[in-house]
Amino acid sequence: MVVKMQNNKYSKIALLALAFSHQAAYASPDHVKADGGIEIYRSEDNNYWFSMHGVVKLDAVAFPDNYKARRDEFPSGTNLRAVENSFGGGIGEDLSFSVSLSFENGVSVSDAYFTYSGIDNMEFNIGQVISPFCLENANSGKWIPFLERSLPIVAFAPCMGIGGQMVQWSDHHAIILSTTTPLAGTNRDTPNIKHRSDNITSTARFVYAPINCHDKVLQFGLSGVYAENSPTFRDGSPNTDGRRFSTRPEARARNTPQLINSGNMMEIDNYNEWGAELSGQYGPLVVQSEYLQANVHRGSKPTLNFYGWHTQASYVLTGEHREHKMKSGSFGKITPKCKYGAWEVAARYSMVNLNDEDIHGGKENNVSLALNWYVNNNLLIRTNYIYASIDPTQALGNANNPNPAKRHMNIIGTRAQIVW
């Protein structure tokens, strides 16, 4: 008998779960570890294993100045910011897989790739991978001290894509290279849009940590991106579905707009981006700074130069330190030592400028403060205060007001996060 599943979205999830359960069963496990998520493995070898983890982020964000200005541009409210589930497993000697699903506005694939790790301190990933660009993008969104990544990181970070990635590391350095085409679900034709062939994006990141011992780290890094882009569609009309640079004010309610936005009609031939980073950890203190710049080439039109930077510091009041991973050159979670959890404070300044030549995408400067309570390994309560100074994109203007007024905003946001 054949059963037809009416909802294609849920049929995919069911098939995926069936495949994972079959893989886990094949492993004939004798060990199961559950600490919110689940890990299944065999003691006699590490070739076959299975793990499942996830996260839920529930936010509430208030824009008090929105009421005073009577604009209704930034409505306060709650937001189910993220629901994600990740699966991984061993499928033979030196072979594994990883799949991450996001359930925001439907089901989407965040990343999905196979890994070969048969060479010491080296991995090769093939599938839909995350492009290696800058430190903040490498840090897991679950464990950064703030509700959102900084303004320039969101504006300039390249999209993930389908392709290959190589990772090589030692105790004091890491090199990550990737070459990708657009990710699944993008660059699709419509009745009015006829895309050209997929373009290639190449990304590289190098990090060096002369000091890397337990809770003391000093790390330098450089990142670069080169991407081709089609300025026109197949019928010769301008590409209105190309690369855009945009960001929000580092907190998101249900309908928080993007006032900083270059638009996607720049008729780009190609663009390159580069970033420089400096970070360090000394016990409970972590500091990091990054500068990013994008150079957008548009044929006979003037080249555009967009830029931004951020600097931040966090301190764990209860004495714990952040996990540091040299393989990815990133800072991770805080593990509370006592039954009352761990407390952290943090501060950040960030800015981004998307104004150049004939493109007026806007400029923004933010100051953010954070107070975080890591209740245990699975529950986190985060509170942020953000002061945003926004010179918005001229796309928000009209004939009577082509240069929309600046906004100075106070933002208060909180998050309850569950990790399993």
| Helicity range | under 10%
Low-confidence stretches: 1-7, 397-401
Structural class estimated from helices and strands: mainly beta
Rounded Rg: 22 Å
Major sheet: 16 strands, antiparallel, barrel
Shape from CA axes?
Answer: globular
Number-wise, the strands total 22
Following the backbone from N to C, one meets helices and strands in this order, namely HEEEHEEEEHHEEEEEEEEEEEEEEE
- The total of helices stands at 4
Which sequence of strands runs across the widest sheet?
3-4-5-6-7-8-9-10-11-14-15-16-19-20-21-22
DSSP strand content: over 45%
Mean pLDDT over the residues? 86
Distance between the termini: 37 Å
Provide an overview of this structure.
The chain is mainly β and 420 residues long. The protein is 8% helix and 53% strand. It contains four helices and 22 strands. The strands form three sheets. Strands 3-4-5-6-7-8-9-10-11-14-15-16-19-20-21-22 form a 16-stranded antiparallel beta barrel. Strands 12-13 form a two-stranded antiparallel ribbon. A two-stranded antiparallel ribbon has the order 17-18. The longest helix is centred in the first third of the chain and has 19 residues, at 8-26. It is globular, with a radius of gyration of 22 Å. Mean pLDDT is 86; it is low at 1-7 and 397-401.
